[in-house]
Every structure is written in structure tokens, then in C-alpha cells.
Design a protein that fits this description.
The protein is α+β, with helices and mostly antiparallel strands and 181 residues long. It has helices spanning 2-20, 38-52, 76-79, 81-84, and strands at residues 55-62, 65-72, 97-102, 105-110, 117-125, 128-139, 143-152, 156-165, 169-179.
């Protein structure tokens, strides 16, 4: 029952976020991407994890109440949807992020406080990605949402979400998935 209620809440939150998006998702023909391709990276990881079909020890915490169980993820694209949705390569945003690139990582930081994706931090070892952190923030007259998305390839993902909705109060979610070896 708890998982069903959580899925309903997550679906409602995703619909609200979808409806509040105010920038069109258009593509410029013939141009390369300016920033790391978050969407492609997580879409490829979702497809790879779908083929591996490994069990996941999934812990869901909602306002301090925690439930843990081992599950098989039926749709990794849906499971990693918040990560996939953190795409910053929209043509309208091509100069909207400050990029700090050093030998072991990348940092993308939003210049405009209205952009949903506030920061993306990518830790690399050579060409291999060790982990990715994504920070988002959305605020409008109905609600305010913050997310911290953490991804460690082949081992762990964590979604931390805080939300305050007018007339409904505040909610805090933590979803942690440990991928079996």
C-alpha cells in the first residue's frame, strides 16, 4: 500500500513539474552540444541496466518513515527519469551555465536563478565517470521543490527531494537504490 501511495505522489509531482516547464524543447539542426549530454548518458545507462536486470535494494523514506525491499526495476528509463530530465543542452540555455573544467571533473552552475537545474557536478577518473550530482530547484506560486540527485554508475543512485505545496504542506523523500553486483 505504501509503495502505491508513493507512486501516486511521485506521478503527481512529475505532472506538476512537466506542466510548469516554460521553455520549449526544440533542437537546433546541425549544432553540437555545448554541455555534457546528461540526457544521453542516463538514457544509455537506463538501457544498459535494463539489459543487466540486476536486483536493487531499494529504500524509500517519506517524511521519516522508511521501507526497504529488494526489487527488480521493470523500467530503468522511468526509474532514472529525474536524472534524464536534468538536460541542460536546450538551445535557449546555450550560454546559461558557467563551466568549470579541471582534470578530474566538471561543474556546471546556472547563471540564471530561474533555471531548474542549478548545478551538475561530474567526477571523472580519466575518461570514466565516477559519480554525478545534480541539484535542482523549482519555485512558483503553488509549490517549491528542491532535488539532489546522486548517481554512482553500476552501484548506487539516490534521489533526495523536498517539496512544499501550498494547502498541502511539506514532504521530504529519499529514494536510495543499491544495485547488486
Amino acid at each position: 500500500m505504501y509503495w502505491f501511495k508513493l507512486r501516486v505522489w511521485v506521478a503527481a509531482l512529475m505532472l506538476i513539474a512537466y506542466w510548469s516547464a516554460c521553455k520549449p524543447d526544440s533542437k537546433e539542426a546541425g549544432t553540437g552540444l555545448k554541455y555534457f549530454n546528461v540526457k544521453e548518458y542516463f538514457t544509455a545507462n537506463a538501457a544498459r541496466l535494463q539489459k543487466l536486470n540486476k536486483p536493487v535494494l531499494k529504500t524509500v523514506t517519506h517524511n521519516g518513515v522508511t521501507e526497504t525491499k529488494t526489487v527488480k526495476i521493470e523500467n530503468w528509463g522511468q526509474e532514472l527519469d529525474l536524472f534524464i530530465g536534468a538536460d541542460i543542452n536546450k538551445p535557449a540555455w546555450k550560454n546559461s551555465y558557467t563551466v568549470i573544467d579541471n582534470n578530474d571533473g566538471l561543474l556546471y552552475k546556472a547563471k540564471d536563478p530561474e533555471l531548474k537545474v542549478r548545478e551538475i557536478l561530474i567526477k571523472k577518473e580519466g575518461q570514466k565517470i565516477k559519480w554525478i550530482l545534480i541539484f535542482t530547484h523549482t519555485k512558483n506560486i503553488l509549490y517549491q521543490t528542491t532535488e539532489k540527485l546522486s548517481y554512482y554508475p553500476d552501484s548506487l543512485y539516490i534521489i533526495e527531494k523536498g517539496q512544499t505545496v501550498k494547502l498541502m504542506g511539506s514532504n521530504h523523500y529519499i529514494i536510495k537504490g543499491v544495485i547488486a553486483n
